[in-house]
Amino acid sequence: RAAARRTTTKKRRMLRSAVQRLGCRWTASRLLSSAAQPASTATSASYGLLAIPAITFGLGTWQVYRLQWKTRLVEELHARVHADPIELPLDPEALKTVEYRPVVLTGEFNHNQEMLVGPRTLLRDSFMGEASEPGFHVVTPFTLSSGEKILVNRGWVPHEKSHPEDRADGQLAGTQTIRALIRHGLKRTNTFTPDNKPSSNIWHWVDAKAMSQAVGAMPIVVDATEASTPNSGFPLGGQTIVTMRNEHLSYIVTWYSLSVFSLILWYTQFRKRGRPSMLSGSGSRRLPPVRQ
After folding, report:
1. Range list of H helices, the chain
2. Are 181 and 98 in contact (CB under 8 A)?
């Protein structure tokens, strides 16, 4: 009877050992198969996030080229303004290539046909960020000594001097020589600017074609410089905005900063910390030993 008991106990141990071995293999293979897929998915997703710093770096580099391009345009613009005066081209096509070039003109103003464009802010105050009193730009036909009639934006006047009789000293008579800058491609400043009303002599923006038709002049506009301001002080010349918006440097800083920060974040999350294994560490389940 004792021998039979020992044989039964031995068989039970062998059976338990076989079951435990099979259980260990099944559990290990199950853990391995379940861990493999998430790891692969996490890896592909993490490397896919590298597109964010790559794209922002590319946008920053593109803005570097845009900054160089805009800088050249600004330098060219200032070179035109400070160049020697040229003869005023009367061909509209030729005017396209000489905008902002200075000219010296001799002729007579036709004050009885002047037009007010506004409201306008004094250029000096607008650049200083100050809210000055509203006023107008005075656009007056100017008959050249050669006989052609063009339009001259003489400059800014305050609202209380919008009527010619209130600035009689500035209504220069006889032959005058003025310095001006050639303008071309004048257009409405924005979609909120009201339409002009030529029939009522109400002008909100300089429309060379419509204004020249209203006074029988050529569609050529020049802006009088500050040197052409009358001794009385009005109209105040030099109201031409000679600048270009150039914010590409701030765009460069923004895009490159986003590229660096997103790359640091990616490295911190997916490379430096690493991914814990499902079969190691404190979170892994220890299998019971097999008793022989």
Report:
1. 2-48, 51-81, 92-95, 123-128, 208-215, 248-267
2. no
The SS3 of residue 116 is strand
Report the distance separating Cα 230 and Cα 259, nearest Å: 56
Most confident listed range (111-125, 142-156, 177-191, 262-276): 142-156
CA distances from 82 to 54, 100, 105, 254 (A): 43, 9, 17, 34
pTM of the model: 0.68
| Type and span of the H or E element at 31 | helix 2-48
Give me the sign of the Cα torsion angle 14, 20, 23, 28.
Answer: negative
**Cα 285 from chain centroid?**
58
CA–CA separation, 177 vs 238, rounded Å?
Answer: 16
Confidence of residue 235 (pLDDT cuts 50, 70, 90): very high
Residues 6+ apart with CB under 8 A from 94: none
In single-letter form, the type of residue at position 166 comes to D
User: How does pLDDT run across 86-119, given as a tens digit for each residue?
Assistant: 999 988 788 888 999 999 999 999 999 999 998 8
Q: Which of 98, 79, 78 is nearest to 88 (CA)?
A: 98
